[in-house]
Structures are given as C-alpha cells and as structure tokens.
Amino acid sequence: xxxxxxxxxxxxxxxxxxxxxxxxxxxxxxxxxxxxxxxxxxxxxxxxxxxxxxxxxxxxxxxxxxxxxxxxxxxxxxxxxxxxx
Length: 85
Description:
68% of the residues lie in helices and 0% in strands. By secondary structure, the chain is mainly α.
C-alpha cells in the first residue's frame, strides 16, 4: 500500500491497482485506511466508475463503530466529485 501511494505521489499512473485498493480498504488499521482513502479519492476524481466503487467503500465505513474511521470515511465521501452526463 505504501509503495503504491509513493508511486502515486510521484506522478506514476497506478490506477490499475484501484480494485485491489478497494479490497484492501477492509483493513482495521487506521493508518492504512487513511492511505487507501487518499488513493481512492485521487483516482475517483479522474474516473466516474472508480468514484462509484469508492462510494460503496466509504458508505460501508461510515457505519463503523470506530469514530475515527466514521469521520474519515464521511470526509472522503463528501469530497467525491461526479461529472454530470
């Protein structure tokens, strides 16, 4: 996860790892979840199909018993942008 984030911040296209990152978002580790949500937010702005996948992930985590995860998911859910068709 950290290596993919490093490549993303260096400008390397890592969008092919998007489905794996969605699956990895099921982790309980808050640091990993922050990195994954950062990644999902970046690529959701560029691709509406990715954004739809991210909505399900963020919505699921919005009901987490951990308040930090709830706040993190709601913040990223609110930052998603969809282009009108």
